[in-house]
Amino acid sequence: MEYQFPYLSPHQTRTQPPTAWQQELANAIEGVFSKGARELDELIAGLNASRVRPPSGGAWTRENFTAVMQELGA
Fold first, then answer.
1. Is 15 exposed, middle or buried (0-12, 13-18, 19+ CB in 10 A)?
2. What is the DSSP string of 15-38?
3. What digits encode the pLDDT tens for the residues 8-48?
4. Mapping DSSP to helix (H, G, I), strand (E, B) and coil, where does residue 54 land?
5. Measured distance CA(47)–CA(8) in Å, rounded
6. In the chain, what are the domain boundaries?
7. Of 63, 57, 51, 56, which Cα lies nearest the Cα of 25?
8. Model pTM score
9. Contact at 8 Å (CB) between 68 and 57?
10. Which of 64, 32, 63 is nearest to 45 (CA)?
11. How many other C-beta atoms can be found within 10 angstroms of the C-beta atom of residue 25?
């Protein structure tokens, strides 16, 4: 038997596939980070500039973003 270095699966905590909205949110977050955002306020501003809105509608805030992340287990 040959040893293989263990790895982490980015989906190891998923209990089900992401919804279309969750996938759009993940893509938007990745896009904001790829443009250089490093702080929460930069991320919130980037999300507000995207077409992805929070589940309740309206604008992203620190509070609703952290609540969504907590709900999603992220």
1. exposed
2. SSPPPHHHHHHHHHHHHHHHTT--
3. 666 666 778 899 999 999 999 999 999 999 999 999 999 99
4. coil
5. 27
6. 20-72
7. 51
8. 0.80
9. no
10. 32
11. 24
